[in-house]
Write a structure and sequence with these properties.
2 copies of one chain form a homodimer. By secondary structure, the first copy, chain A, is an alpha+beta fold. Chain A is built from 17 helices and 23 strands. The radius of gyration of chain A is 30 Å and the shape is globular. β23 of chain A pairs antiparallel with β23 of chain B, so a sheet runs across the interface. Chains A, B: It is found in: Cytoplasm. Chains A, B: Its EC number is 6.1.1.12. Chains A, B: Catalyzes the attachment of L-aspartate to tRNA(Asp) in a two-step reaction: L-aspartate is first activated by ATP to form Asp-AMP and then transferred to the acceptor end of tRNA(Asp). Chains A, B: InterPro entries: Aa-tRNA-synt_II (IPR004364), aa-tRNA-synth_II (IPR006195), aa-tRNA-synth_II/BPL/LPL (IPR045864), Asp-tRNA-ligase_1 (IPR004524), Asp-tRNA-ligase_1_N (IPR047089), Asp/Asn-tRNA-synth_IIb (IPR002312), AspRS_core (IPR047090), GAD-like_sf (IPR004115).
């Protein structure tokens, strides 16, 4: 061992002990004949004191930033203590030292506020990983990993490894494929998730499975996606939805406790998908704050349970003579607390904000709820004071608030209102970094309509069970959509799934479902998705086969491990929580991968390029 | 929840409680009006008693093997107890039941001694996994996983995930490659191990890393190899070989304790590679038994440390006038305890055994050490009784033993003698299943000679450091081999590595090394392996670069997790310890993978087939 102690553990208790440390030179400071060195390792920083007698050696072997140094000597009490670090009471009076390795001058400073840009730090990731900020992220990641494993172990879950070289069954996302040299012309696929394997394990009787496992999706990368990502993947047999919700909200609470020392004792809120969309315009609402949406106008079939409400609409914004509302499919309002005194400039800026292409609205209507109870709006000439009050009431606005109204096509308007709500929540300081609010979103639609093919696609995945009450709707109706315009009136659009998402502070951190476990229903599902019997057998014959031999009722969930860590770590970016991430083009710029391969490899794999 | 208890937990303490169980029907037995059902789940088996009143329902819904059943009723004490199972004191007097799912008749019986052949069980792996024998294996695997993680965690190791989509750097084994759609014409590779990443993590200061991680090698599969396999992968910084040996023999001892309840308190034996080859003919000797090799004749340069012994050879078997010995490069002997009375037939059978193509010897010479002190051999006419005694003494034979002698080319003869030793050990019951003997094999050669290219290849991998004393030999000599015939006389053939293997009962369960951590030495190593500077930079530029910024001394080890589990589980086959293994052609016969992919996938990846 090159050291007797780490750089993070020496305190006043070790004074007068002879010790040896090894680590990296953080700083070198010369004061006359004396030299101070801060020596850093994974565990901390310790000050080294080099006396005059070592100057000859120091002159011959000068120390530089990031040199690897081994130093022995006696632990001494510091005259000038540093209360900010655990080792701040002592220093090491060096009697001998050895440079274990030299370092070139690093391309950026190894400090929390580094001077290195993103690209440079990605290229020299091995140096970026030395920074405290990055190290804390990876330590948090490991703590979450450890906590999850402990909880699941204590609850009788078994970690069972599933294969990485599997079969390509593209359905939804694109597979990464791997040419098989031993089976020329054939390919493995990398798993998008261990979904079918964990279901097989339930069929096999391993009634509580988990894995913290890499998954792969060959998608065009958006800002914060990675082609390989990690899931906490779980499945249980002989359970109903309620059992799963209880088991896994306790998992997240345990992680809160172990990793952040947060006692999350309250029950996790639950909300149906319809309520989430209705109230927050979003299926993963941030419920750290209210600012609920007032639904002034909306198309009936999107929210069948609200049809009555629509018909009895008190507000009637759609027949006001104001063309923007009259022509809009949807009119939604939110109230920004205490913002009634926003200036023209502030309102113009907000209007520009909603008109940005990412939000894509035509404009923004406002109603100031003045402190004196009067209203002032951008649509005064179309609406009476009573009408303005009715709109403000629909958004739960009070005197002093600012009501913001968006109008347009249903999907875009609802999304834009949700974005505006989140933006206002941020600006008003309502999205507190140290507050964590969990939410279960339930009762998702089983199907989504795919316009390009005029067919149904699975919203979660093809293995998700309909809600028990809705199974009959699925079985007794033909999935074919006769009239594309009126797909919302097809019975399938109202089938709800036994599916659930866990949302944390406005981010989906996990999702799952109760699965189909009967062959007939699974076949019906494949057919509903437009798969021929032959195709279903080719892709999923093993699963259909397994369902014939006593498949138990089962369900599960998968958490996005990277995302969960980033939220717990208070960061927007999952990349900060991955040791060796890829950039937005799917490249590892440190390795320079992907890269070309040899002729010999092409030859052995019996493939060749076919570049466009 | 479909159950209040599992099928493994009800005992006499629960008698009179009302409970609900769910599981699979193992057996149905009818006695008159009464029906007994054994209900099975992951935790055990519980007997269900269906009284006369349920016969109408049972007739309408007959139960079959592997049906999934939910049954409620009262726990009752059994009149006819079964002491062999934990639930044997009770039975469940069923008051109501529900068939949760039916099952077709399974293609083989779900029992320890199943009637299903290998192929059938692989195709229906989800049913094979139900068998107790397989379940026990996966449970053991999870226990090893858990034990290893706990030990490593307690010793400050951090689980850090390394990427799966990396760069192809074929060196040794073949890479699996993954075409990149976003970077047409370029490929990722799947990692053969996280070797370079864990070294980068050491450079980054994470001084104790571990991962239980999938690795991939596209090799022609031998009997017990898998294209994807799992390693317990570890690395430490600021350590010397001794630190690593101590840390990881304690890991294995901990696993023995946690998983097998074995107190392995003795120090782990250590042996140099030369000693292992000299004494056991093998670099992973099974030291549960002796039967050490007597080296009667051998080529000097293979064992430089034995040259003196050769020159002073007392036995001189090579000038006896017996042409088999005279013409042989190597003559080796072992003594089979108490076998001096082997019959002609037994000796003939042994001779046939060594002549099998897998062993490949021309014949077998024997010397019977008779109980009366005389010798009887197959080469009596060439050797005097004294000479026979000297040979017998070299093999440590005593009266009553049978000495077996093999002669021929060095490599084959040594290997054959090792195989014969293991075979005799097995036949004589010396390789006890419940005995576990660990061994460190040390000081491996750094290089191996590759005849086809007349160059050196790394025996471990190109990142392994020479022993400190041997670094100068490496630096000061030209790696070029002028005379291929005399490669053993090249100074490189005597360089030993700072490498170590852990051997358990004759199986290599782990291996590792102290790594090179200086750029210059790493460059010298790449050059010694015949890599051009350009090639080295293209493949490993990131590592060479990292070594410029303060790389600490470091080293590590990787354990073959599948193999370790199979040995602890007392099986020869790693496949039994993998939930979803592939067959010898690298196929998953259950999934039918690999398989063809769509035109669309070829198109997007911009590759096409080039079948021969």
């Amino acid at each position: 061992m090159y050291r007797s102690h780490t750089c993070g553990e020496l305190t006043i208790n070790e004074v007068k002990q002879e010790v040896t440390l090894a680590g990296w030179v953080q700083t070198v400071r010369k004061f006359g004949a004396i030299t101070f060195v801060d020596l850093r390792d994974r565990y901390g920083i310790t000050q080294l004191l080099f006396g005059e007698e070592l100057n000859t050696q120091l002159d011959a072997q000068p120390l530089g930033r990031e040199f690897v140094l081994q130093a022995s000597g006696i632990v001494s009490e510091r005259s000038n203590k540093n209360p900010n670090i655990p080792t701040g009471d002592i220093e090491l009076a060096v009697s001998s030292f050895k440079i274990l390795n030299r370092s070139a001058v690093p391309p950026f400073t190894i400090q929390d506020d580094t001077d290195g840009g993103d690209d440079l730090r990605m290229k020299y990731r091995f140096l970026d990983l030395r920074r405290n900020a990055v190290k804390r992220n990876l330590e948090l990641r490991y703590a979450v990993n450890r906590s999850a494993r402990n909880y699941l172990h204590e609850n009788n879950f078994m970690d069972i490894e599933t294969p990485f070289l599997i079969k390509s069954t593209p359905e939804g996302a694109r597979d990464f494929v791997v040419p098989s040299r031993m089976n020329p012309g054939q390919f493995y696929a990398l798993p998008q998730s261990p979904q079918t394997f964990k279901q097989l394990l339930m069929v096999s009787g391993y009634d509580r499975y988990y894995q913290i496992v890499k998954c792969f999706r060959d998608e065009d990368l958006r800002a914060d996606r990675q082609p390989e990502f990690t899931q906490i993947d779980c499945e249980m047999a002989f359970v109903e939805q309620e059992d799963i919700l209880n088991m896994f909200e306790s998992l997240i609470k345990r992680i809160f406790k172990d990793v952040k020392n947060i006692d999350y004792t309250e029950a996790v809120e639950r909300m149906t998908w319809e309520d989430a969309m209705w109230t927050y315009g979003n299926d993963k609402p941030d419920i750290r704050f209210g600012m609920k949406i007032g639904n002034l106008k909306f198309p009936a079939h999107t929210f069948p349970s609200r049809i009555a409400h629509l018909q009895n609409s008190l507000i009637g914004v759609g027949s006001s003579g104001f063309p923007v509302f009259d022509n809009a499919e949807t009119v939604l309002a939110i109230a920004a607390k205490g913002c009634s005194e926003y200036t023209r400039k502030q309102l113009d800026e907000l209007t520009e904000w909603v008109k940005r292409p990412q939000i894509g609205m035509q404009g923004l209507i406002y109603i100031k709820c003045n402190a004196d109870g009067t209203y002032k709006s951008s649509v005064d000439k179309f609406f009476s004071e009573d009408k303005l009050k009715a709109i403000a009431d629909a958004a739960d606005a009070e005197a002093g608030d600012l009501v913001l109204v968006l109008a347009g096509r249903e999907e875009r308007t609802r999304k834009a209102t949700s974005e505006l709500r989140l933006e206002m929540g941020k600006r008003l300081g309502l999205r507190k970094e140290d507050e964590f609010k969990l939410l279960w979103v339930l009762d998702f639609p089983l199907f989504e309509y795919a316009e390009e093919d005029n067919r149904w696609v699975a919203r979660h995945h093809p293995f998700t069970s309909p809600k028990p009450d809705h199974i009959a709707i699925m079985i007794n109706n033909n999935p074919v959509i006769e009239n594309a315009e009126k797909y919302l009136e097809h019975p399938y659009s109202n089938i709800k799934a036994n599916a659930y998402d866990m949302v944390l502070n406005g981010n989906e951190i996990g999702g799952g479902s109760i699965r189909i476990f009967q062959r007939e229903l699974q076949e019906k599902m494949f057919a509903a998705l437009g798969m021929s019997e032959e195709e279903a057998l080719h892709k999923f014959g093993f699963l259909l086969g397994a369902f014939e031999y006593g498949a138990p009722p089962h369900g599960g969930i998968a958490f996005g491990f990277d995302r969960l860590c980033s939220i717990l770590g208070g960061s927007e970016s999952i990349r900060d929580f991955i040791a060796f991430p890829k950039n937005n083009a799917g490249r590892d710029v440190m390795l320079d991968a992907p890269s070309t391969i040899d002729e010999k490899q092409f030859d052995e794999l019996q493939i060749k390029l076919n570049l466009k």
